[in-house]
Amino acid sequence: MFIRFWRSLSWIILILILSFIPGDKFGEPKLFNHFDLFVHAFLYAVLALINEYDINKNYRNNFYFRSTMPIILIVGTIIGIATEIVQYYLIPNRNGSIYDLIADIIGAFLGITLFRLFLLKK
């Protein structure tokens, strides 16, 4: 079953790796303040897109997976909460932020919306 979701699992692993890199390895963003919020939103939007694709591809005719939005938002939220807690307590020079979590959730919602607008075959 997990092999069906290799794309989603690979992206989750990428998110975890990026989330758990110590803060002193990044440096200060030069573009503008709060650039990391856009990075969070992007990572979780792609995660939601991939999750929607994997679920739609593997369970298209299954009644239980016709409404995937709550599942994907919950998965994104749980991963976001977990990474922020780990960053706050365990990762040097990183701090967990409610704003990062909000950006994660907004990104997941945007990813779901983009998938449904442009990629979902009706």
Q: What report would you give on this structure?
A:
The chain has 122 residues and is mainly α. Helices cover 67% and strands 0% of the residues. The protein has helices at 6-19, 35-58, 69-90, 98-119. The two termini are 25 Å apart.
What are the key terms here?
single chain, 122 residues, mainly alpha
Tally of structural domains? 1
Portion of residues in beta strands equals under 5%
Quaternary state, please?
single chain
Shape call? elongated
What is the strand tally? 0
Nearest-angstrom radius of gyration?
A: 15 Å
Q: What is the CA–CA distance across the termini? A: 25 Å
Give the SSE order as H and E letters.
HHHH
Helix content: 55-70%
Structural class per helix/strand content? mainly alpha
Task: Please write out the topology.
Layout: H1 6-19, H2 35-58, H3 69-90, H4 98-119
Helix pairs in contact: 1-2, 2-3, 2-4, 3-4
Please summarize what this structure is.
With 122 residues, the protein is mostly helical. The protein has one domain. It is built from 4 helices and no strands.
